[in-house]
Design goal:
With about 775 residues, the chain is of the alpha/beta class. The chain is about 45% helix and about 20% strand. The chain contains 22 helices and 24 strands. The strands form five sheets. Strands 15-16-18-19-20-21-22-23 form an eight-stranded mixed β-barrel, surrounded by five helices. Strands 9-10-8-13-14 form a five-stranded mixed beta sheet, with helices on both faces. Helix 19 links the parallel strand 20 and strand 21. Helix 12 (about 505-525) packs parallel to helix 14.
Length: about 775
């Protein structure tokens, strides 16, 4: 008898610490995300500033090149116009071929004045090939020129001025000006360079002004040199055009914190001339400056909200952990009676066996069940049945000793562990006779409105006479219980080896079930078995109990199929009578698929919006090809997978998570619905709802029966419904017996209802909720394969 022990306080503490670490990581991640957003904004601002600054520098550089090219172009045009007008006129007038007479000192002065006044140059000089002035000047201008003359000599010696390739511009002349150069070939020669003159950034342009056409005698060459300083009006104009705030010229790079410096290089040799300094327009910093207060406030608000969320999440996790621990503790007790359940009984039984290995103690295990409990349920309803279970538990407990253990194993089955019966051989018979006598008394039910007479049967195993293995001992007690029932009920029997000689009750039942199942399977497959004088043990049938929507009109939404065995000698048997035999005999898989086929075949004729639910055993779920077998049945019958609902028990999910997860995932991928039966009565774990993608929770009738009698019932159902609603899981409340329960469950938010208030389980031919005569609003059907 294998059980899973509940979590200890140490395990709970470790789980709490692990949750705290997770929350800490979430907090760090949230703060990191906030910081990343702020840093990203700052980085974006910096990148925007860098791009804007680079753009401004490119514009300044382009503007400087443009001004150099403009000077070259203008003086080239000036020289061209002068040659086209003055020099040909002198030729026509019969003036000497030499221009010395024309380009006199006075003429040089006129040219210089024209260049400065008409074109706005800061200075203009007319010189010969040796850079000597050929113009009238005052002493100050002549002195100033002597300082400039050494810088002009390289320009005069530039080979480009002596070629016949037309206008020669700076090496940085844009390609867009090449067409202009080509149009001026053989007209004049012009050159413009950017250099430092008198410690100032200056554009110096030079053009020949007395070139003659080819074939004519060449006079002494003269040149016009123009000077434009860039640190005065030109810089102001550049600042206005390019949006350079506070632009100024500096010989060294000494910008203030809010300024940038752009280096000016000489055109000829690339030597630095100086720096243009200005306050750049930085849009990124401007935007960040405006957004930073809002970003700071937003980050603070997010941090506060994150902190509040983490605190609430931590509190919720704490409550959830405590609730899960409490649920694990409650899992050791039966909800209806408050007695120990199968798990706690197994724990105490294992402890008893362990102590007996080192002592001479003798104990006994007794299995009990009520003889006519099913008839009470069918006649008076589940509310009466639940009351009968509670009263029977109280009567049994009243005759036991303080150290004995009474447990409810499920349904109407109880188990008793009688410790230390050595020394008084009358204890065991006395207790068993007292229990039989108490159970044989009438049971007033439903506030005296009904009286039930059921009785009880007991099977006993003496330990260690029957062996030391817990499973064998329980099986022997079950054999003794069956013998007691076969002996006429209302009796008790002690197991003896004679009951286990191959003809015990369970073996007989297994053999009979095997015959019945073989006949039923052959009939479903439309094939006949050879008649070998087979004995008649009856036949298997599927009963259906309708499920109704918890909404106005309570329209039928499905039905639950319940397998029955109509035995030729023992009457109509419920699953509790033969399912254990089917499991032991390896027949549970065949029985489950027989019910699946019958239920799907029946549902095929129901309305399209209905479903059929089939109970699935753990053995079936462990089959690797279980999903393919289900799909094969659906394809063969022609039923949509979405109309099939498979009901599982929580014990089947605990046994083998990995294999079952794969099977359920395959089923759900085709649309088959998965429901969890009797939720909350077994070894519940909330993780099953998420890991296995449960579609529906079935609330056990033991909770429903407490409505109106115990406040805990409404609280538990409300908690289950709220959990299901938050997880988008449907809920079906079982065991609805009264109108009050129906209305209360609908108000709580249950999606579907099922119970005797609506209908009892009936054979297929008596199921009229889906017939056309009942209208289209009848309930769909869910079948429990072996429930």
């Amino acid at each position: 008898m294998h059980i899973v022990l509940p979590s200890s306080s140490n395990t709970f503490q470790q789980s709490w610490i692990a949750s705290g670490r997770i929350l800490f990581l979430i907090a760090i991640s949230g703060l990191g995300a906030i910081g990343l957003v702020v840093l990203s904004a700052l980085w974006a601002g910096k990148e925007s500033d860098a791009a804007a600054l680079d753009r401004q520098r490119q514009l300044v550089n382009a503007r400087l090149r443009e001004q150099v090219d403009q000077v070259a172009h203008v003086i080239g045009q000036f020289g061209n116009g002068y040659l086209a007008r003055v020099y040909p006129a002198s030729q026509a007038a019969g003036v000497s071929s030499s221009l010395d007479a024309v380009l006199s000192a006075a003429a040089g002065s006129a040219i210089s004045q024209t260049a400065m006044s008409a074109f706005g140059y800061d200075q203009a000089f007319v010189v010969d090939e040796k850079a000597q002035l050929v113009m009238l000047t005052d002493a100050a201008t002549e002195k100033r020129y002597r300082w400039m003359r050494p810088l002009f000599l390289p320009l005069l010696k530039d080979a480009r001025l002596t070629t016949d390739q037309g206008v020669v511009f700076s090496e940085r002349t844009p390609s867009s000006l090449e067409s202009r150069r080509a149009s001026m070939i053989n007209l004049n020669h012009a050159l413009a360079n950017l250099m430092r003159l008198e410690g100032r950034p200056t554009i110096v342009g030079i053009v020949g002004i007395n070139d003659t056409p080819q074939g004519q005698r060449q006079p002494a060459r003269q040149f016009l040199i123009v000077v434009r300083f860039l640190d005065g009006a030109a810089l102001d104009e550049l600042s206005r055009q390019q949006g350079l705030n506070g632009a100024r010229f500096a010989r060294t790079a000494d910008p203030d914190e809010d300024e940038v410096a752009f280096q000016i290089d000489a055109t000829a040799n690339g030597e630095p001339i100086g720096f243009i300094v200005w306050r750049p327009d930085l849009p990124g910093s401007r935007v960040i400056g405006r957004l930073m207060p809002a970003l700071s406030i937003a980050a603070l608000v997010i941090a506060v909200l994150l902190s509040v969320l983490l605190v609430r999440l931590r509190n919720s996790l704490g409550e959830l952990k405590k609730s899960e621990l409490h649920a694990r503790q409650l899992a050791l007790h039966d909800v209806l009676t408050g007695l120990p359940n199968r798990a706690l009984f197994a724990m105490r039984f294992e402890e008893c066996l362990a102590q007996m290995r080192t002592s001479s103690e003798r104990s006994a295990v007794a299995l009990l069940d009520l003889d006519r409990f099913k008839a009470v349920n069918d006649t008076f309803g589940h509310a009466a049945g639940d009351e009968l279970i509670r009263v029977a538990a109280d009567r049994i407990r009243s005759v036991l000793r303080p150290g004995d253990t009474l447990a409810r194993l499920g349904g109407d089955e109880f188990a008793v562990l009688l410790r230390n019966i050595r020394g008084d051989e009358k204890i065991l018979p006395a207790i068993c006779q007292a229990i039989v006598a108490e159970l044989g008394k009438p049971f007033p039910l439903l506030n005296g409105e009904a009286v039930a007479r059921v009785g009880g049967s007991i099977g006993v195993t003496i330990v260690p006479d029957a062996g030391r293995n817990a499973d064998d001992i329980m099986r022997y007690a079950d054999v003794a219980l069956y013998e007691a029932k076969m002996g006429g009920r209302g009796q008790w029997r002690i197991y003896s080896s004679s009951m286990d000689g191959g003809r015990n009750a369970r073996d007989i039942l297994k053999n009979e079930l095997r015959e019945v199942l073989a006949i039923g399977t052959a009939a479903s497959a439309n094939r006949s078995l050879p008649d070998l004088n087979r004995p008649d043990f009856g036949s298997l049938e599927v009963y259906y109990q309708a499920v109704h929507r918890a909404e106005t009109g309570f329209k039928a939404s499905g039905a639950e199929a319940l397998v029955r065995w109509r035995h030729s000698q023992r009457g109509l048997l419920t699953p509790a009578s033969f399912i254990p035999a089917a499991e032991e005999g390896g027949l549970i898989d065949a029985l489950g698929f027989w019910v699946l086929r019958e239920a799907c075949n029946a549902a095929r004729s129901w309305p399209e919006d209905t479903f059929v639910a089939v109970n699935v055993s753990p053995s079936q779920l462990r089959r690797p090809n279980f999903a393919e077998e289900v799909f094969a049945v659906l394809d063969e019958i022609g039923l949509s997978p979405s109309r099939l609902e498979l009901e599982l028990t929580e014990s089947s999910l605990i046994e083998d998570n990995s294999e079952i997860y794969t099977v359920l995932k395959s089923l759900r991928s085709r649309g088959v619905q998965i429901s969890l039966d009797d939720f909350g009565t077994g070894y519940s774990c909330l993780s099953h709802l998420m890991r296995f993608d449960i579609d529906r929770i079935k609330i056990d009738r033991s909770f429903v029966s407490m409505l109106g009698t115990k406040a805990n019932g409404a609280a538990i159902i409300g908690a289950i419904v709220a959990l299901s609603r938050n997880l988008a899981i449907s809920t079906t409340a079982e065991g609805v017996e009264t109108e009050y329960q129906r209305d209360f469950l609908a108000a709580l938010g249950c999606t579907d209802l099922q119970g005797y208030f609506f209908s009892k389980p009936v054979p297929l031919h008596e199921l009229d909720c889906f017939r056309p005569a009942n209208g289209a609003g009848s309930p769909p059907i869910a079948s429990e394969a072996i429930a």
